[in-house]
């Protein structure tokens, strides 16, 4: 019997896959841009990715506002341990605090998995999993996109969880390993997975960013001697940022629980198993090796 509390792996309905971490090395180009008012967030991220000749991107979102905002957050499932809540659509306006996205394809069409946090019309910090018809509001949303040269991200229904999940697939052999795109399957500890992915790639030092997924509840350090625990069965990470050095990881996160409440803090090692899936981006710490295609108009806008 699975313990119904944070930190204990979930029991999923399908067969357990033997390969628990799928990782693909890749070259990277960084693009900083703005998503324009009225655009659908997911569709615009795919448009930028595809127009650059790529099939995958890992994205960080910040600032800006939502027009139409439709989202869900984690919930207890009826036929599986974790699922999604009902759909919410706040009246707005809602202003973006941060977010992450994985961009790829599903059933042959462009698709993006997007988590975000925002301030709602009441001034509350809220967060969730954005649905595809969510649009950009009057204030453009800033996006830092890591376009992956050698990876195709494909979303399929996972036999183990019976839920959709992105997995990275190699398009060809990477000319240079600047970063790794990885999928972490259920039950794997998030900290251990991060250090394993970095070690496999030969990165003695690395940075983690533009990553999202879910853990079983969550256990975070939120101050000296303070541990916060988010509710079982799942929380969705809207951001994961950190460093890896000589096999040790320091990870910080923002995440939303099954009540729609947002938490942030340091991720505790060994206490945060993946709930359904985690899409992880790990980049070699030598940032000078990354090609950077900067949107100069956005960079030079007055402060």
TrEMBL record:
Classification via InterPro entries: PPC_dom (IPR005175)
Q: What highest taxon heads this organism's lineage?
A: Bacteria
User: Domain PPC spans what residues?
Assistant: 25-169, 174-303
**GO terms of molecular function:** DNA binding
Q: Which UniProt keywords apply?
A: DNA-binding
The name of this protein is: DNA-binding protein
Q: Which Gene3D superfamilies match?
A: Hypothetical protein, similar to alpha- acetolactate decarboxylase, domain 2 (3.30.1330.80)
Q: Does the keyword DNA-binding apply?
A: yes
Q: What is the lineage of its organism?
A: Bacteria, Bacillati, Actinomycetota, Actinomycetes, Pseudonocardiales
Instruction: Report whether DNA-binding shows up as a keyword of the record.
Output: yes
A Pfam family cross-referenced in the UniProt record is: PCC
């Amino acid at each position: 019997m699975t313990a119904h509390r944070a930190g204990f792996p979930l029991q999923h309905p399908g067969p357990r896959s033997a390969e628990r971490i799928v990782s693909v090395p890749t070259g990277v180009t960084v693009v900083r841009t703005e998503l324009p008012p009225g655009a659908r967030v997911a569709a615009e991220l795919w448009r930028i990715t595809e127009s650059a000749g790529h099939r995958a991107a890992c994205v960080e979102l910040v600032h800006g506002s939502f027009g139409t905002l439709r989202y869900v957050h984690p919930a207890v499932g009826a036929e599986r341990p974790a699922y999604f809540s009902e759909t919410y659509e706040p009246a707005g306006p809602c202003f973006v605090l941060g977010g992450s996205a994985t961009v790829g394809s599903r059933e042959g069409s462009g698709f993006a998995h997007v988590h975000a946090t925002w301030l709602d019309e009441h001034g509350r910090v809220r967060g969730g999993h954005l649905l595809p018809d969510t649009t950009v509001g009057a204030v453009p949303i800033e996006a830092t996109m890591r376009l992956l040269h050698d990876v195709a991200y494909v979303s399929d229904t996972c036999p183990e969880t019976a839920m959709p999940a992105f997995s990275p697939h190699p398009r060809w052999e990477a000319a240079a390993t600047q970063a790794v795109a990885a999928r972490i399957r259920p039950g794997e500890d998030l900290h251990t997975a991060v250090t394993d992915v970095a070690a496999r790639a030969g990165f003695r030092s690395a940075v983690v960013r533009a990553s999202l997924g879910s853990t079983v509840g969550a256990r975070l350090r939120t101050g000296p001697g303070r541990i916060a625990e988010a509710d079982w069965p799942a929380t969705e990470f809207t951001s994961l940022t950190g460093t890896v050095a000589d096999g040790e990881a320091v990870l910080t996160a923002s995440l939303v629980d099954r009540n729609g409440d947002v938490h942030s803090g340091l991720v505790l090692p060994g206490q945060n198993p993946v709930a359904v899936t985690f899409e992880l981006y790990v980049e070699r710490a030598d940032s000078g090796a990354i090609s950077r295609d900067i949107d100069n108009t956005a960079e030079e806008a007055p402060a």
